[in-house]
Amino acid sequence: MTSLPPGECCIRGIKHEGTPTGSIEKIENITTYFARPARPNGNAIFIFGDVFGPIYQNVQLIADNFAAQGYLTVVPDLLNGDAMGVEAFLGGKVDLPAWLARHDPTTIDPIAETVIDYLKNTLKVKSIAGVGYCFGAKYVVRHLKENRLDVAYIAHPSFVTSEELSAITKPLSIAAAEDDAIFTQENRFESEKILAGLILPYQINLYGGVGHGFALRGDLSIKEVKFATDRAFEQAVTWFDYWV
Length: 244
Hints:
By secondary structure, this protein is an alpha/beta fold.
């Protein structure tokens, strides 16, 4: 396995300041946050969010930032209204194995495929870039292949298997944290070995002084975290601008 299963660090984090400017809409019956660019470049970004789902301010603000770069950005509810709450988890009210069993490839893959089909065939976007944070990274990797996603970026991934990573056929960029019990140094090295063997464009950037979740839920009042968060976002945009 190239990244370990989600743990407590996956639900810790800081709520970022700002006011989302997008809208909540439906793709068929899937609740989705839409961030529309003022100057669209014809491409879309599909954000596979973490365990908090799309109705979470941090991911909505990131979607708005991607839209400001010209990308139509969508954050669908891959969890079908069953997002995890921090207080419930820390209070021992969440059965993590049962929650994960409700949200596995048999439930999430069909939702992802519906969204991809909508972007390609209804909105007629030129290319679709996938973005995955923590839990969502697994599903970006699973769909990074022909006739699905065209390029991808993931940050501090969890639950990605070596078989899933070995099956990708499109360019992948990874933002990794130095202090990460889920995407460990050993996992990074394993991922690098797999990606090098695929002979595909890939990138793994390591950010020092930060931990798991920094790119989405980091404490931006800490200089090292703010730097890493900003640079990781720029990493994604630069990757997409070049490879879409």
